[in-house]
Amino acid sequence: MLDAAEPLDGATVLDVGAGDGLIGLGALDRVGAGGAVIFADISPALLEQCRRAAKELGALDRTRFIQAKAEDLAEVPDGSVDVVTTRSVLIYVDDKAKAFAAFARVLRPGGRVSLFEPINRLMYPEPPGRFCGYDLGAVTDLVAKVNSTFDDLEDPAFRAAMMDFDDRDLTSLAEAADFERVHVECHIRHRAWLAHAAG
Fold first, then answer.
1. 179 closest CA partner among 74, 102, 117, 116
2. Measured on CA atoms in the order 149, 152, 157, 158, is the torsion positive or negative?
3. How far is CA 28 from CA 11, 53, 101, 118, 124, in A?
4. What is the pLDDT of residue 166?
5. How many CA atoms lie within 13 A of 46 on its CB side?
6. CATH 3.40.50.20 for the 2-118 domain, yes or no
7. Which residues pair with 115 in a beta bridge?
8. In 42-172, at which residue ranges do the beta strands (DSSP E only) sit?
9. What is the DSSP letter of 128?
10. Tens digits of residue pLDDT in 40-83
């Protein structure tokens, strides 16, 4: 993701859904002394973890931490960042179009988004006798019961957010948010059961 976001020297990077800081902390080296990284996440605990890590790196003067959802970046001024990064975040967002609009709003002219999202639509539903990719054909009845229990416990909106898009939808969302150029790479690792699941 950071390679795709280059050049980063001197840039202000907004890491949306920063989590434990994997992307944002990695960006600190690349933005250099003249750049900055804004860590945004909905979890205060994870933001504090990022703050501690940035302090250990001696980089607190080049960081900012905000509690925010991907679709509501109100604390970030219009046109104030050069790069937005996000990794496995949109799968948890119901209103993905609103998130892309927020990304576009905070970017300076010529700014860019570098994101990674798993395309769950390609992997589910799993074929009968499979659970999380494992062949459990010998205990198919048990697999069905476990799947049924998960279905009963899971919020349908949560599943919908994880399953309601693919690479083409991400392209369309970026275009609708007026990004001038969109580059999408889709990496597929094939296993025989995936072919069966795809029908």
1. 102
2. negative
3. 10, 11, 25, 25, 36
4. 79
5. 18
6. no
7. 86
8. 63-67, 81-87, 107-116, 130-131, 134-135
9. T
10. 999 999 999 999 999 999 999 999 999 999 999 999 999 999 99
